[in-house]
Structures are given as structure tokens and as C-alpha cells.
Design brief:
Helix content is 29%, strand content 22%. The chain is α+β, with helices and mostly antiparallel strands and 544 residues long. The longest helix has 23 residues. It is globular and about 95 Å long.
């Protein structure tokens, strides 16, 4: 029989003359055994197993515990639905693939801790119970028993606390920390997640780039045995949107977006004329090998991009050196230049979305990623890191009729833009940066505001009164008055990094005890109701 522990399996051999043979015949799957014996060379070796050359010749076997028939197959490949896996998570975690995943996660965390320790960083814990502050998502609230009607909040991030540590003189902080956001789950997002949190004083963006690039160089070498190239490439936010239609581009494959305004500026096609005359763009994507898609499949793609507010999808195929499709008749006289600009070859499909710049780019960016996956254009075991820089500092909220911060209200703007915060906020560029890996946002950070006047201007722009500032951030604003060094930092997603490096399809496969997409834990059956006595203690009433 095979005996399994966290390091793998080994074959156990027990001969009939062994006194424990009869007892051992009762052993079934998932029984817990203690085996004492001799390691011997295996007669029929199994080259597919690390232990395939040896076996254990049992001298004594003790059944320590019996087991019910498990409700799922405990192997790398299992037929169990995710609901079953989540309900019996402690059994799901016995699967070798799950154990390898969590051990790799441990390796990443160990590499992170060693790196920051060697670079003079201090691991400092920040509160898990604090004040509810606006940070972009809904807070998880905790009612106070001692102060009825008042609430604590679980942290969306340690943002304010780590900045206070900079005020306190701890110039290099890091923490592998739990964060909580009451938002809808998806494959790469959980309500409770772990981030690698970093903050430094007396630095600028270049210091962050260098520090984090060397961190990932170390992680990839120690955990994956790969030497990656540093420094990482950089794209500005406008460049990323223009070339890839997203602020987290997957650069493992080409298929960049192109702008065809210059090519079609004299076109008689009404759609192109109208878009160009109203300041829009004609964005195109050459899908390599996409001519195999049926008309129905392409029409379905046109329906899908309506969620990005795109009005429609234009397309043309190129095969046998000929354009075919609904757009073909409007390309007469433009064929050669279009082929040259987009690098079109036989078997390709050209998709075009015309409209406002961000809508057209975002819609095609979605199709770029979707079709690359479906057509098998993304290489495996390739890890492309890059930085996205030069983000807009503020966004105008049409409904509210005012500007909002694009990140959080403590993000600095470029030095040259400080004077524009109240006069031309739309021109302000943030000292903000994202790190992207294989199409996933792996982390985000910024240089923070340390000047009280600049901070006041930002609050004024976004419509916060003095009373609101005091109520929401009073203790933090007070701290800034006592000599605050220039500082900045970044937060990296440990769960997401582990997901990418293990090839998992969901964050739920890299977290020991996650929640479902519906924010439920089927194993512990949480969330759950509490007793009337508990509600009475908290002075709470459940509204029906």
C-alpha cells in the first residue's frame, strides 16, 4: 500500500508472515498509520515517483486512527465540485497539489521576510480593529459593546498606520498583513486577503522601483529557480491604455492595439468620419489566426463589448490574400497600408471599435485577452513584470459634480503639478505606480503627501469640509503637523502572486481556508446568526 505524508508517498510492503498482516488488511483509504520498517531497493521501480526506487519493508504497523470514506478523491485531480471541496476543506488540503501550493506560498513569504530583514526593514504589526475611514471599498464593521451605537472597522489596508510609523521615525517598515474589504468576490479577489505592505521615508519613485525589482528577482530565483531581467519595463497609464486597452496589460504575447485615425482620415465610411470629427478614435486589433472564428462567434464578441459601452464591433478577415467580411468593401484603396500597419497575414482577423478613446481601447483590450486565451496564443511558464506609471491624480464624478481622488487622498502629485490641484486638477499626474505580472495587478503604491498645505488642497478639491476632515482623518492630520518626512510605499498581493506562480485558476486555491464567490465558508457555515442575548449586549436590532 501507499503511505502519504506532506512530502509525498512511499510504498509499504507487509508480508503474510508479519504478525501485523491481518490487522493491516482492514486498513482503508485515509487511515492513519504508524509504520516501522527497513528501507529496501524496490524490485519493480517506478520512475514517475521520487520514491519509486525504494520501498519500506514493514516490521510493525499500527493503525492509529480509522477514517470514513472521504467525499472526494484525494489526489491532484479530483472530480469533486468546488462546493464539496470547500465544505470538506480539511480533506481538500490533503491533496498533494494543494499542499505543494501552500508550501510554495510559505517559500514566497520566507523569501520576502529575509529580503526585507537584510535591507534594514522592521516588521511592525498594525491594528486589526480600528476606525472606519473611506478608502474605496465598504468596511467590515464591528459593533462596540462598551459604546453602543459606535463601531470599529477591520482595515482595508494599514495605509494610515504605516504612514504614522513614518511620522514616528521608523523609516523602513514592512508587514505581511491581513486586509478586509466588503466587496464582491471574483477569481482573483477575496473579502479577506493578505498583502506584503511596505513603506519608506526619504525616498522617491526610483527607490521603490529598485527595491521591489530586486525583491522579485530574489523571489523568482529562490521559489521558481528563474533569473528574471531587471529593471522591469515601464509604461505610462496613457501608453498602456493606448497599446493594450487596460491598465494591467499581459505582455506575454504581442497583438497590440493600433489607432487608425490617420489612415482613414479621408475615408468615405460614415462611421469613421463621425468618430474622427467628434474627437474619437478608430482602434484596431489584429487577432493572429483569428480567421477561424465563425461569423456567429464574432457577433457574440460584439454583444460582449456592450458592457464597456462600445456601440458595435467592425471586422474583416484576411485569407488567401483577400479581405472578406462586412468591412471589406470600405477598405478599397486602404488594403496595403492596413496590412503594413497591423502586420496582417493570411488567417488573421481584424477587429475594429470606433468611439471615445477610453471606451474603444477598453473594449478591444477585453477582446485581446479573451481571444488570446481561447486561441492558445499565451505562452506558459513565462513571467512578464512591468510598471504602470503616470496615473491621473483625480477623476471627475459626473453624478456628484466634483472631482474625486483616483487612488487615495494621501497620494502626492508630481512636483510640477502641485499648483494645479485647485485650478486644473484634470492635468495633475500622481506619483503613483502599479506593478503588473502577466495581466494581473500585483501591487499598487505611491509617494505620499507630507506637506500639510498640499493635503488641505486635496481635501478641498474633493469637497471635504473642515468638519468632515476632522471626523474622518482628524488624528492623522494632527500627526502631520509634528514634522513628517517625505515617504512612500507599496502593497503587493501575496495571494495573487502565489496564484500566478502556481498556475492556480483562483485565489481560493492558494488560501488555506477561503470564502466562496458568495462570501460564504461552507465548512464552518459562516456567516451565521447570533443569539438574541448577543444582540442585546451590543444594543443591536436586526431589521427584517
Amino acid at each position: 500500500m501507499d503511505l502519504r505524508d506532506r512530502t509525498g508517498i512511499v510504498q509499504i510492503v507487509c508480508k503474510p508472515e508479519n504478525p501485523t498482516y491481518q490487522a493491516l488488511e482492514t486498513a482503508r483509504n485515509e487511515y492513519v498509520l504508524k509504520v516501522t520498517g527497513k528501507v529496501v531497493e524496490r524490485e519493480s521501480k517506478n520512475k514517475n515517483l521520487p520514491t519509486g526506487d525504494i520501498e519500506i519493508e514493514a516490521e510493525e504497523v499500527v493503525i492509529l486512527n480509522e477514517a470514513k470514506q472521504p467525499p472526494l478523491i484525494i489526489a491532484d485531480t479530483t472530480d469533486a465540485l468546488e462546493e464539496v471541496r470547500m465544505k470538506y476543506r480539511y480533506l481538500d488540503l490533503r491533496r498533494p497539489v494543494m499542499q505543494r501550493t501552500l508550501m510554495l506560498r510559505h517559500q514566497i513569504a520566507r523569501s520576502v521576510r529575509n529580503y526585507f530583514d537584510e535591507n534594514g526593514f522592521i516588521d511592525i504589526e498594525t491594528p486589526v480593529i480600528g476606525k472606519s475611514t473611506p478608502e474605496g471599498a465598504r468596511d467590515y464593521l464591528i459593533p462596540s459593546r462598551l459604546y453602543p451605537g459606535k463601531f470599529y472597522a477591520l482595515p482595508q489596508s494599514p495605509q494610515i498606520y504605516k504612514q504614522l510609523l513614518m511620522v514616528s521615525g521608523f523609516d523602513r517598515y514592512y508587514q505581511i498583513v491581513k486586509c478586509f474589504r466588503d466587496e464582491d468576490s471574483r477569481s482573483d479577489r477575496q473579502m479577506e486577503f493578505t498583502q506584503i505592505d511596505v513603506e519608506m521615508s526619504f525616498i522617491d519613485e526610483e527607490d521603490i522601483y529598485t527595491l521591489i525589482e530586486k525583491l522579485f528577482y530574489r523571489i523568482m530565483k529562490e521559489v521558481k529557480g528563474l533569473e528574471i531581467n531587471i529593471p522591469f519595463p515601464r509604461l505610462t497609464y496613457p501608453e498602456a491604455l493606448d497599446l493594450y486597452g487596460t491598465d494591467k496589460p499581459d505582455t506575454r504575447f504581442e497583438m497590440k492595439l493600433a489607432t487608425l485615425n490617420d489612415l482613414f482620415k479621408d475615408s468615405s465610411f460614415t462611421v469613421f468620419q463621425n468618430v474622427i470629427s467628434t474627437g474619437g478614435v478608430i482602434k484596431a486589433l489584429n487577432v493572429k489566426g483569428g480567421a477561424t472564428l465563425t461569423r456567429k462567434a464574432i457577433e457574440n464578441l460584439g454583444e460582449e463589448i456592450h458592457k464597456y459601452k462600445a456601440k458595435g464591433l467592425l471586422w474583416v478577415k484576411y485569407d488567401n490574400n483577400t479581405f472578406t467580411g462586412p468591412l471589406a468593401k470600405y477598405l478599397e484603396g486602404y488594403e496595403a497600408k492596413l496590412i503594413e500597419q497591423l502586420g496582417i497575414e493570411n488567417g488573421d482577423l481584424v477587429l475594429i471599435v470606433a468611439g471615445p478613446r477610453k471606451i474603444a481601447a477598453t473594449a478591444l483590450g477585453y477582446l485581446r485577452n479573451k481571444l488570446a486565451k481561447e486561441l492558445g496564443l499565451i505562452p506558459e511558464d513565462v513571467y512578464n513584470f512591468l510598471w504602470i506609471t503616470d496615473w491621473p491624480a483625480f477623476e471627475y464624478d459626473e453624478e456628484a459634480g466634483r472631482y474625486e481622488v483616483a487612488h487615495h487622498p494621501f497620494t502626492s502629485v508630481k512636483d510640477s503639478d502641485v499648483g494645479k490641484i485647485l485650478t486644473h486638477p484634470e492635468e495633475c499626474i500622481a506619483k503613483c505606480y502599479d506593478i503588473v505580472l502577466n495581466g494581473y495587478e500585483l501591487g499598487s503604491g505611491s509617494i505620499r503627501i507630507h506637506d500639510q498645505k498640499v493635503q488641505a488642497d486635496v481635501f478641498k478639491l474633493i469637497g471635504l469640509s473642515d468638519e468632515e476632515v476632522k471626523d474622518k482623518f482628524g488624528f492623522f492630520i494632527e500627526a502631520l503637523k509634528y514634522g513628517t518626512p517625505p515617504h512612500g510605499g507599496i502593497a503587493l498581493g501575496l495571494d495573487r502572486l502565489t496564484m500566478i506562480l502556481t498556475g492556480a485558476q483562483s485565489l481560493r486555491d492558494v488560501i488555506a481556508f477561503p470564502k466562496t464567490a458568495n462570501a460564504i465558508d461552507p465548512m464552518s457555515e459562516s456567516p451565521s446568526y447570533v443569539t438574541d442575548e448577543q444582540l442585546e449586549e451590543l444594543k443591536l436590532v436586526i431589521k427584517k
